[in-house]
Amino acid sequence: MTGFERFDLTGRVAVVVGGSRGMGAAMSVGLARAGAEVMVVSRKFDACAELAARITAETGRRAVPHACHIGHWAEVDALADAAYATFGRVDVLINNAGMSPVYPDVTELTEELYDKVLDVNLKGPFRLTSLVGSRMAATERGGSVIFVSSVEAVRPGVTAIPYAAAKAGINNLTLSFAHLLGPRVRVNCIMPGAFLTDVSRHWDMAEFRRRAQSHALRRAATADEVVGTALYLAGDASSFTTGAVLRVDGGYV
């Protein structure tokens, strides 16, 4: 294959969880532009449907919306069944859903909120990868699973401790599933740093710009700057890459 052909996803099906906004939306669009059919998944069906319609209009690729609360085990099971019922196959699974709520003090963090953070960031991706990855591994063509963690996994702060712990768990799942699902399925992880998405609207940007001066690129990324890494991991360009945690952090770590 030529270099370009290794990034061609024509004929493949991708499921992008947390795919309707931010980095997930950018990856959904990018995969479709590379030739994939896409299932756009998030908790809000209307947001998924809006993006799916735009993807089809812009790329001509089939895009299907699906609503799922990734923290609910039964909904994850239904998502896996729906993906195979709709497309008949899944070649790329991107576990991008996440949440990092702010709490006033660690002693005031409720059990309910703690459980929700772990459910969305760790339990759901585990269950979905178990289901979809196992089906991928049972086929000759295999597939690619991409987790999305965070630099908080390796350099945790003090304001989002459960989130950082969950993302460290995602890094661990990457290695475990790479061995469990190999050799037919490759499992890798994107570990992003600071990205300008809807979440960043709550940042103190003056403080961030000050801290960013210690990063190699001295800035945050835009959502589309994750797409190249996702395309690399999704297709044949990364045919000998598995169990890898790739930092996309502008030189933060």
The number of strands is 9
Major sheet details? 7 strands, parallel
Low-confidence parts: none
The rounded Rg comes to 17 Å
CATH architecture: 3-Layer(aba) Sandwich
For the residues shown, what is the average pLDDT? 94
Top-tier CATH class: Alpha Beta
| Helix share, percent | 40-55%
Spatial order of strands in the largest sheet: 3-2-1-4-5-6-9
Short description:
With 253 residues, this protein is α/β, with parallel strands linked by helices. It has one domain: Rossmann fold, CATH 3.40.50.720.
What does this structure look like?
The protein has helices spanning 22-33, 45-59, 73-87, 111-137, 161-181, 205-212, 227-234; strands spanning 13-17, 37-42, 63-67, 92-95, 143-148, 185-192, 195-196, 221-222, 245-248. It is 42% helix and 17% strand. The strands form two sheets. A seven-stranded parallel β-sheet has the order 3-2-1-4-5-6-9, sandwiched between helices. Helix 1 runs parallel beside helix 2, helix 3 (73-87) packs parallel to helix 4 (111-137) and helix 4 packs parallel to helix 5. The chain contains seven helices and nine strands; from the N terminus they run βαβαβαβαβαββαβαβ. It has a single domain (5-247), classed as Rossmann fold. The mean pLDDT is 94. Strand 2, helix 2 (45-59) and strand 3 form a beta-alpha-beta unit. 44% of the residues are buried. The two termini are 34 Å apart. By secondary structure, it is α/β, with parallel strands linked by helices. InterPro entries: KR_dom (IPR057326), NAD(P)-bd_dom_sf (IPR036291), Sc_DH/Rdtase_CS (IPR020904), SDR_fam (IPR002347). This is SDR family oxidoreductase. It holds the Pfam family adh_short_C2. Keywords: Oxidoreductase.
